[in-house]
Each structure stands twice: as C-alpha cells, then as structure tokens.
Amino acid sequence: MSAILSTQNLVKKYGYKIVSNNISLTINKGDIYGFVGKNGAGKTTFMRQVLGLAFPDSGEITLFGGEPLNTARKKIGSLIEFPSIYKNCTAYENMKRMAILTGSSDKSVRKILDFVGLGNTGNKKAGQFSLGMRQRLGIAMALLGNPELLILDEPINGLDPTGIMEIRDLIIRLNTEKKITFMISSHLLEELSKIATRYGFIHDGKLIEEISAVELSQKCSDRVLIVPDNPQKAAEILSKIMPPQQIHIYNKSVYLDSMIDRTGQINKYLVENGVTVNQISIHAINLEEYFLRKVGA
After folding, report:
1. pTM greater than 0.70 (yes/no)
2. Would you list the domain boundaries of the chain?
C-alpha cells in the first residue's frame, strides 16, 4: 500500500511541555484511520502540524510519497474542532465563499451539497441548521478542491444518534465511492469502531500503538475473565500451565487469551493452589476497554 501520510520522530513543544513526542505514524491510501486519545493527548496538535497550522520542533512529515509540503497540502481537506461557517448565510452561500479560495466551480459546489444531503436547504440560514447539518456543511466545505485526504477532528462530538449516523454514513460513502482517505479523531470509540480500518493510539503525546481493525478485533475476541482474591498470585500460578504473555492483569482481574473451553479446570487449579476465585466467565472487551488498558487507566 502507498502511504499518503507518514511522520518520523515528530516533536512539538509548548514551553517545557512536549505535546508530540517522537511520533512516527503512517496512513495508507484508502484507510479510515481512527486517531484515539484522551483530551489533551496531542491529537489536535498533531493534525495541525500535518496541515501546516503548527510547526514541529523536529522530525519529518511526508505527504503523498514525498511531494513538497505546500503542494501536497492542497490535496488535504480538514475540519478541525468546529466548522467555520457564516451563520447568516445559506449552505450554498457558505460554499461559494470557500469556493473562491479553492477555485471550485458552481457545478462542483452544487454537486457536493447534493452528495452531503444539503442540496435542498434553499434559503435556510446555516445558523438554523442542526449541529449534524452544520458538521455536514463543514465536511462539504472541506471537499472543495477534490482532496485525497480528509482530516476530521472530533466530527461526531456532541451529535445526537441521528446526526452521528449521518456523519458515519457520509464518511463511508466518501471512502468507498470517492476513494478519499480519512484521519479521524474521536472520543466516541464504539462509533469509531464501526468505520475505522486502522487505529493509532496516542497518550501524553506518544503514539503507543498502531493496529489494523482486523488485528484489534482478534485482540478483543472472547477470553477468560477471572476475579480472584489475589490477581498477582493467580497470574503466577497460571503461568505454570500457559504462556505468561497470554495472561493479563487489569483492574483487579486476570484475563486469559486462551483456555476458553477449560474454565472449570482453571477454577479447580487455582483453588487447589490457594487462590479464591470470586468469578470466572467468558468476556469480550470493546475498543474503549482495550484503549484504557493500553494507557494503563
């Protein structure tokens, strides 16, 4: 696969605070890349550096295989935080203002508005739009100039279920029909898991893992959950009968990646070795649980 965006050891500091700490990240053509992190983890700062709205102190940004950054950034559309729209203007008028900067035709403006479902809003002012409609207008404005990469910062934050579904469906259509690559940050991890094909997990400015959706699904598959009186002792005992790397302690519980069909034997083995088992069951973790484990929360 060809990389649309890659960074090597990207560092950004604000005073003594390091907000991008040697980030090396790759987004391939066709990805819907979920950028996951808590508030203040460094997601927006990283995106702003890619867009040229902030500048790294060290490291490299490579776009579209090494094109000059000023040229390559013209192939990127973005929606950072909130869409910059004129509330007293219609969707069409907002698009026409932005089209002046991108050189887009009137035909292109109307075509994009139709694609995002705002072609029939007529004289309704953007200030009267729902939050979901304003987000779709922001994405429509980002589509002017036919970008190959869209960078969206929390595009579904604050939306109701209908608005979330509209944005999610729009992203999927743009990816499949228009072949646009996405980098999306979001706190709504379960919603992100419905569309993302790859993930990057960031914590305190560090990229702690990149993983495909397929690999993540495998890691979040069924496993044995044990709630013992002494998790550390239970893990030590179990390491005698299974690979230690398949044993994980999290939140006073022990998780096993294998032996799903041997819960009765596991329970008996622990009790015989002096461990009280308060609960043993089969458990599948979701994206949020996986992320929290990665950051040690």
Report:
1. yes
2. 3-217, 220-294
Can you give the pLDDT at residue 29? 96
Return the CATH architecture of domain 220-294.
2-Layer Sandwich (3.30)
| Topology adopted by domain 3-217 | Rossmann fold (3.40.50)
DSSP 70: H
Residue 238 CA: distances (Å) to CA of 17, 20, 153, 217: 42, 39, 43, 25
Q: Which two tokens stand for residue 138?
A: 């922001």
Residues facing residue 144 across a β-bridge: none
* Residues 10 and 56 sit within 8 Å (Cβ to Cβ): yes
Percent of the chain with pLDDT over 70: 99
Under a CB-based contact definition with an 8 Å cutoff, are residues 10 and 59 in contact? yes
Task: Give the per-residue pLDDT at 204.
Answer: 93
Residue 101: per-residue pLDDT: 87
Q: Fill in the DSSP letter of residue 274.
A: T
Beta bridge mates, 256: 224, 247
Lookup: tokens for 220: 């979040």
Nearest to 50 by CA among 149, 136, 144: 149
